[in-house]
Task: inverse folding
């Protein structure tokens, strides 16, 4: 009976251990789901108008992310304002986008992170060669394309125009941009065109090489940077566009905000780190205005910085992403998240396992001592008529004890158990035949 009870006890222990392991596994899965979920393999980027810098760089990001198994979906837009609305989920949906510096002023935003500035976006003003103008104020009364509605270029163009005496509702400020504005400039339907774009943008390259069109410099560039702190003074050196034809024919002063890379706050940290690596690969090279390794840079203070971007600027890419492909790095990172809670349980468990093992081995021997104790007490209280019953019980205990298998390290305790069985056997014999036992125990006297 006691043997069966012991087996039931062991089964209960095994059952509780199994339940504990299942609970631990469920806890690990919960931790992985909420604290280390798998990053999505598809991202959406809101770019800009075709031919603009945002669209140009969006293609570069798509190529780099594709190498790591992440699909980047590009969505054309009218510019910064529409990009911002998509990031906020107001007008469509986007995970990452470019925003023009100076447009968004939300240093305590609770839904967006900035990854930093990635390049300069000069303000380009292109005019026809037959237009006489040295300063922007000289263009008053001229027909000027200031960019499409909803773009950051239009907002900045209006800000600059207002600073030069233009009324906000001036009918000469025409809200068109992109190819429509270029065609209008070629056909002399407008006199000037304003665009805010990186130097690599196809639209800028096209206008810089277009016959009969020239860029108008900011002769008061330093004044603009004082009045509009989000602008930086830049210089396009003489001959930088075309050395042979000496374009431009003189150094050209420009002003520029920065283009900033912005993501939703809930974007997976691994994808943020991947975007930072792509930004470094694309924008660290020197350009017409940028020095080598000048970008990306933590220069955007209009939105809260991403913690992942801050770590990137301080110590570079995550260690795992430096040595492993993106997918493998994410997998190893998840395994580490799995191992941490497991180690928190297993390390203490490993410390108590030896004690549990010793207890288990000794319990296989010590369980017989209970039966021996009760049998010994029954023998001492009983009478000789019960001797056969006592012997039967003792033989049952002895037989089961002899079948018990234990490691060699615990064999001595098994031999001690046998000695105790022999002791109880002697007690039974003394109770069954007290006279014989006493006679055998009496020391014979020697007579002279």
Result:
């Amino acid at each position: 009976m006691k043997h069966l009870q012991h087996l039931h006890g062991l089964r209960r222990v095994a059952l509780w251990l199994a339940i504990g392991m299942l609970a631990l596994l469920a806890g690990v899965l919960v931790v992985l789901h909420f604290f280390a979920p798998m990053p999505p393999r598809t991202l959406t980027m809101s770019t800009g108008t075709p031919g603009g810098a945002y669209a140009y760089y969006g293609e570069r990001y798509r190529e780099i992310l594709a190498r790591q198994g992440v699909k980047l979906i590009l969505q054309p837009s009218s510019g910064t304002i529409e990009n911002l609305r998509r990031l906020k989920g107001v007008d469509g949906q986007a995970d990452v986008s470019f925003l023009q510096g100076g447009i968004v002023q939300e240093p305590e935003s609770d839904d967006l992170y900035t990854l930093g500035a990635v390049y300069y976006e000069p303000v380009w003003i292109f005019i026809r060669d037959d237009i006489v103008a040295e300063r922007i104020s000289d263009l008053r009364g001229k027909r000027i394309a200031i960019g499409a509605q909803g773009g950051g270029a239009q907002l900045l163009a209006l800000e600059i125009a207002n600073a030069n005496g233009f009324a906000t509702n001036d009918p000469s400020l025409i809200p068109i941009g992109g190819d429509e504005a270029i065609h209008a400039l070629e056909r002399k339907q407008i006199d000037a065109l304003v665009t805010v774009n990186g130097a690599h943008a196809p639209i800028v390259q096209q206008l810089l090489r277009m016959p009969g069109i020239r860029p108008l410099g900011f002769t008061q560039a330093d004044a603009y940077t004082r009045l509009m702190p989000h602008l930086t003074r830049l210089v396009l050196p003489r001959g930088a566009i075309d050395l042979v034809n000496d374009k431009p024919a003189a150094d050209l002063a420009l002003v520029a905000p920065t283009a900033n890379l912005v993501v939703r706050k809930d974007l997976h940290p691994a994808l943020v780190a991947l975007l930072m690596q792509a930004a470094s690969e694309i924008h660290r090279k020197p350009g017409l205005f940028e020095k080598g390794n000048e970008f990306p840079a933590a220069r955007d203070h209009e939105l809260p910085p991403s913690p992942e971007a801050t770590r990137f600027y301080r110590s570079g890419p995550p260690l795992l992403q430096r040595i492993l492909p993106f997918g493998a790095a994410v997998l190893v990172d998840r395994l580490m998240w799995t191992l941490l809670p497991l180690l928190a349980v297993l390390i203490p468990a490993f410390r108590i396992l030896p004690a549990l093992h010793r207890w288990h081995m000794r319990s296989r021997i010590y369980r017989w001592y209970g039966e021996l104790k009760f049998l010994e007490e029954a023998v001492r209280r009983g009478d000789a008529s019960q001797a056969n019953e006592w012997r039967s019980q003792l033989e049952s205990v002895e037989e089961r004890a002899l079948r018990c298998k234990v490691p060699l390290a615990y064999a001595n305790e098994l031999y001690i158990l046998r000695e105790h069985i022999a002791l109880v056997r002697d007690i039974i014999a003394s109770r069954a035949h007290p006279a014989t036992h006493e006679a055998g125990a009496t020391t014979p006297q020697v007579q002279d």
Residues 1-10, 441-448 have pLDDT under 50 and may be disordered. Residues 39-118+262-323 form a domain with the D-Maltodextrin-Binding Protein; domain 2 fold (CATH 3.40.190.10). Residues 326-381 form the longest helix (56 residues).
